[in-house]
C-alpha cells in the first residue's frame, strides 16, 4: 500500500508540473502529458481504493 501512495504522489507531481506549464505558458504538449497523467492517477487511485478495502477486511 505504501508503494501505491508513493506512486500516486509521483504521478500527481508530474501532472501538476505539466498542467501548470499548459496554463501558464500555453504549452500544448504539456497539456497532453497532463491529461495522460490524470488517467494514470485515476488507475492508481482505483488500485489504492481496492487495497485499502482489503486492508480493512483483515
Question: How widely separated are the two ends?
Answer: 14 Å
Number of strands: 0
- Supply the number of structural domains: 1
Strand content: under 5%
Low-confidence stretches: none
- Outline, from the CA principal axes? elongated
SSE order, one letter for each helix or strand: HH
Secondary structure: helix percent: over 70%
The structure class reads mainly alpha
The overall pLDDT, averaged over residues, is 95
Continuous helix count: 2
For the largest beta-sheet, the strand count, sense and barrel status come to:
none
Rg calc: 14 Å
Write a brief structural summary.
With 58 residues, the chain is an all-alpha fold. Helices cover 93% and strands 0% of the residues. It has one domain (2-57).
Amino acid at each position: 500500500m505504501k508503494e501505491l501512495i508513493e506512486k500516486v504522489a509521483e504521478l500527481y507531481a508530474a501532472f501538476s508540473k505539466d498542467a501548470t506549464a499548459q496554463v501558464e505558458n500555453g504549452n500544448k504538449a504539456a497539456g497532453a502529458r497532463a491529461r495522460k497523467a490524470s488517467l494514470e492517477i485515476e488507475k492508481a487511485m482505483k488500485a489504492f481504493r481496492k487495497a485499502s478495502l482489503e486492508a480493512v477486511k483483515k
